[in-house]
Design brief:
The structure holds 2 protein chains of 2 kinds. Chain A is mainly alpha-helical. Chain A is about 75% helix and about 5% strand. By secondary structure, chain B is α/β, with parallel strands linked by helices. In chain B, the strands form 2 sheets. Chain B has a 6-stranded mixed sheet, with helices on both faces. In chain B, helix 2 packs across helix 3. The chains are: A mainly alpha, B alpha/beta. Chains A and B meet through helix 1 and helix 4 of A and helix 2 of B.
């Protein structure tokens, strides 16, 4: 691994991303639309639910709008990062392949893409965190932003994994829709989780710990460190798998 | 003259279709070789195996360390400028900044596209993009250069410059392998093979 080459790959990937102005605009607009719809449609009726990831049974009562703001903030970051990661890895794949034929290692390029993705992830998490905080005052804004970063990490790395595994763009999009939609877009909603059967299944999905971290930091004074740490493990797991598959599929035979 | 590219007994099939059947090829330093063939004859398959993109089912390929490859389809990043491409590919070739800058200046001047240095590829004409595509294969002074339909999209002046450059490369010992549907400047070539029935003839 040559870190100078990783640095150049990172700078080039970031430049390519930042020069796609419509993409940047949509990255800003989509969370605003998600949260705007919550603002228009949700009520302030108090709803009780149980914090699933805490060892002791803890029930809290939060206005419906508050729960929805947090849930949609998490969902929007998860969606955006997974699609962005898929795009970063699939777009111009034939040129990336040429760079590998010229001497780059597949893993140098994947790490460079991941680093660029992390920069965008931090910016999106900050933006969505601040926007959510403006609409509904979360208890611990810094921890809440960290929890958004954790969902970005988990689903960003999932996007990298899908992009490494699947060649076709549409197939990749559908695979992302399948998991992200079911997981952070549905099952991790605290209100759904509360009444769900087979909660064990939901606990093993990648969006569980980031969602729990966001709920804990937004509504309580409990520590979200365990949930954040476990989220990182999911992210690292997806990353290691994608490094392995990307190397296998992109390496040259000389 | 030493061998810079050697392929021995290559086999490659896609399902029941046998594309390469025991193909062998040797390219010596300083020579210009051509491979022609009809559509579907296996030219692209052979080329991908020679440059290391695909693995043959059987057989062996040995190539010099400094291999330059210019794909037929322009392989460039639309969002990056010409200058950024030189930087990116210079890093891939492990070139020093000074060496890359010197080669970049030479290629820009020779192929006459220096005025586009700061332009993004998305804004270049097809011919200029093809010049950059070729220049990136030449950047690291390759010992063997593999070109897939290299002159499609060139204007007449660039076409002439391209062949003059090929002659210069041969003088310094670079071997060139051109893969194409047809070859116009046949008199310049040391050998021209036809790829037929999975073998070179």
């Amino acid at each position: 691994m040559n870190w100078n080459r990783v640095g150049i790959g990172f700078a080039m990937t970031l430049r390519m991303l930042l020069r796609r102005q419509i993409v940047l605009l949509l990255l800003a607009v989509i969370p605003a639309v998600f949260l705007g719809i919550v603002k228009i449609t949700s009520t302030d009726r108090p709803l009780p639910f149980r914090l699933a990831s805490l060892t002791e049974e803890t029930f809290i009562t939060i206005p419906e709008a508050g729960i929805n703001f947090v849930f949609f903030a998490v969902a929007s970051v998860g969606f955006l990062l997974s699609f962005l990661a898929l795009n970063i890895i699939q777009k111009d794949k034939h040129v990336t392949r040429r760079l590998i034929l010229c001497g780059y290692s597949p893993n140098e390029l994947l790490i460079a893409k991941l680093a660029a993705l992390l920069v965008i992830m931090v910016l999106i998490a900050l933006y969505v965190g601040l926007l959510t905080d403006q609409l509904y005052e979360v208890r611990h804004p810094a921890q809440f932003v960290l929890s958004l970063m954790s969902i970005g990490l988990v689903y960003g790395c999932y996007g990298l994994l899908v992009g490494s595994l699947i060649r076709g763009e549409l197939e990749g999009i559908l695979l992302i829709v399948l998991l992200v939609n079911i997981d952070v877009g549905w099952l991790q909603n605290p209100l759904f989780y509360e009444g769900a059967q087979n909660q064990v299944l939901i606990r093993y999905l990648p969006g569980y710990f980031p969602s729990q971290a966001s709920v804990i930091s937004a509504f309580t004074d409990y520590s979200s460190q365990t949930a954040l740490g476990t989220s990182c493990l999911f992210g690292v797991g997806f990353l290691l798998l994608s490094l392995f598959i990307y190397y296998r599929t992109m390496k040259i035979h000389r | 003259m030493g061998l810079v590219l050697r392929a021995e007994n290559l086999y490659k099939s896609f399902g029941k279709k046998k594309v390469l059947r025991g193909l062998s090829l040797q390219v010596e330093a300083g020579t210009l070789c051509g491979i022609v063939g009809e559509n579907g004859s296996g030219k692209s398959t052979l080329l991908k195996i020679l440059v290391g993109e695909w693995r043959p089912q059987q057989g062996l390929v040995r190539a010099a360390d400094r291999l330059g490859y210019c794909p037929q389809r322009v392989a460039l990043f639309p969002q990056l400028t010409v200058e950024e491409h030189f930087r990116y590919f210079g890093a891939a070739y492990r070139m020093s900044v000074a060496e890359r800058d010197q080669r970049q200046a030479h290629l820009l001047e020779y192929f006459n596209f220096g005025k586009y240095l700061k332009d993004r590829v998305a804004h270049l004409s097809g011919g200029t993009a093809q010049k950059l595509n070729l220049s990136l294969a030449l950047l690291h002074r390759p010992e063997v250069l593999v070109l897939d339909e290299p002159y499609s999209g060139f204007d007449w002046d660039t076409h002439q410059r391209f062949w003059a450059y090929v002659s210069q490369l041969r003088e310094v010992g670079c071997a060139i392998l051109v893969v194409s549907h047809f070859i116009t400047e046949k008199h310049l070539f040391d050998r021209i093979y036809e790829l037929k029935n999975g073998q070179l003839q």
